[in-house]
Amino acid sequence: MKLPKHYMAAISAFIIWGFFSIVLKPLYLYPSLDILFYRVFACIIIMLLINIAFRRDKIKETKNYFTALTKKEKRNQWLLIFGSSLLLTANWFFFIYVMNHISVKAASFAYMVCPILTTVFAWFILKEKLTRLQWLSVFLSMLSCVILSYNSFTSALYSVVIASTYAVYLVLQKRITMPDRFILLTLQIGFTALILLPFYKPYSGPVPTEPLFYYFIIMIAVGFTIIPMFLNLFALKGINSSTVGILIYLNPIIAFTLAIVYYDENVTLIQAMAYFVIVISVILFNVGSYLKLKEQDMPINRPSVN
C-alpha cells in the first residue's frame, strides 16, 4: 500500500523544518524580532505576488466561498483565521528567540512536547480517536519529555510555550473550511504581518545592510516557511491532527542530531536515552497509522448471494 499524498506532505514538511537551524543560526547576531519582522514581510510579499500573477482563479473561488457562507459562518471562519495568525506570530517569535539565544536542543525539545499537546487538544476538541498502539506511543513520548525536562526547567518552560502555540494552531486548522490552502496561508501570514507592522518601527534595529542577511531571509521565507507551511496545511485536509502532530517528532529528531553532530552541543546520556524513546514512539505511532490505513483499504467481505 502506498502512503497517501497527505501523509507524505506532512513527513516532507517536518523533515524540512528539522534542518531550519542551518539557515537560522547564521543570523544569531541579529535580534529575534528583526528576523521575525523580515521573515514575515518577505513571506507576504512573495505570496501576494504568486497569487496575483498565477492564481487569480483561486482568488475568485475563495471570494465565492465566503459569499456563500452565512453571517455566523463568516464570523467564525475569520476568527479562526485571525486566531491562527496570532498563534503563528507567538510561535515564530519564541522559536527564533530560543534557537538563537538559548540552544538548538531547547528549540527541538519544543517540538517534542508539541505532538503530545496536539494529540490531547485533538482528542478533547475534535474528538479524534487513537488506537491502543498509538496511545502507547503518546505515553512513551510523555515519559521522554519528563526525562528531558529534568534539571532544565527554564528551557522546558520556553519549550511548552512554543509547543502550545503550534499545537493549538494545528487543531484550529481542522475547523477552517476554506478550500484553497495556499490562499488560507496567505491570509494567515497577511494577518501576522499586520499584527507585527505597528511594532516594526519602535522595536526593530537598524535596517540590515549585509546582502547575506537578505539571502538567508529569502531562504527562510520560501524554503522554511511557505513551502513546509503549505505542505502542513495540505496534509491536514487528508489526515487527522494527532497523526500530523506525532509526525512533528521528525523535526526535533533531525534538529537534535544537528545539535550534536554539526553544532557540537553537549548531550548527556539521559538526553540520548530520552531521544531514543522518542524514536521508538514515532515508529509505534506510525505503525498504528499504517494499520488503520490498511484496514480502510481492505475490501469489506460481503456474503455471496446464491
What proportion of the residues is helical, as a percent range? over 70%
Which spans of ≥5 residues are poorly predicted at pLDDT below 50? 300-306
- Euclidean distance between termini CA atoms: 32 Å
Coarse structural class:
mainly alpha
Overall, the morphology is: globular
Order of helices and strands: HHHHHHHHHHHHH
Number of strands: 0
Share in β-strands: under 5%
Helical stretch count?
A: 13
User: Could you tell me the mean pLDDT?
Assistant: 82
Largest sheet: none
Gyration radius, in Å: 20 Å
Account of the 3D structure:
The protein is an all-alpha fold and 306 residues long. Helices cover 80% and strands 0% of the residues. It is built from 13 helices and no strands. The radius of gyration is 20 Å and the shape is globular. The relative contact order is 0.20.
List the helices and strands and how they pair.
Elements: H1 5-18, H2 21-24, H3 32-54, H4 56-68, H5 71-101, H6 104-126, H7 132-149, H8 153-173, H9 181-203, H10 211-238, H11 241-247, H12 250-261, H13 269-297
Helix pairs in contact: 1-10, 1-12, 3-4, 3-5, 3-9, 3-10, 5-6, 5-8, 5-9, 6-7, 6-8, 6-11, 6-12, 7-13
Give a concise summary.
This protein is mainly alpha-helical. The chain has helices at 5-18, 21-24, 32-54, 56-68, 71-101, 104-126, 132-149, 153-173, 181-203, 211-238, 241-247, 250-261, 269-297.
